[in-house]
Amino acid sequence: MTPGRRHMLRVKELGCVICRNLGLGPTPADAHHCFDTSDKDDFLTVPLCREHHEGKTGFHGMGERRFNATYKTSERRLIGQTYRELAT
Q: How many other CB atoms are there within 10 angstroms of residue 52's CB atom?
């Protein structure tokens, strides 16, 4: 297994960062690749549940601008939070 894949497994184990920030507790998560480009970096991922990743209230469902405004965040902030939580 590559180091990037190992990292994504650790990210997923954290549970959805948005659910936790909303006080909803831990929920199963996918690894969302931030800064979506053709050369996705597995180390630039954050944990999002299916709804907050691809659902109507999610990053891909709402679009980046509306998602960030709704949850008062950004991909940069979520990456920082993810790395802080992985370090503890």
A: 28
The two structure tokens encoding residue 62:
């709402």
Contact yes or no for 42/4 (Cβ under 8 A): yes
* Angle at which helices 75-87 and 3-13 cross, to 10°: 90
Tell whether pTM > 0.90.
Answer: yes
> Phi/psi zone of residue 35: left (φ > 0), alpha (ψ -120 to 50 degrees), beta?
left
Cα 9 to Cα 3, 59, 63: the distances in Å are: 10, 20, 25
- Residues near 80 by beta carbon (within 8 Å), at least 6 away in sequence: none
Interval 25-79: pLDDT, tens: 889 999 999 987 677 899 999 999 999 999 999 999 999 999 999 999 999 999 9
* Of the candidates 27, 8, 7, the residue with the CA atom closest to the CA atom of residue 18: 27
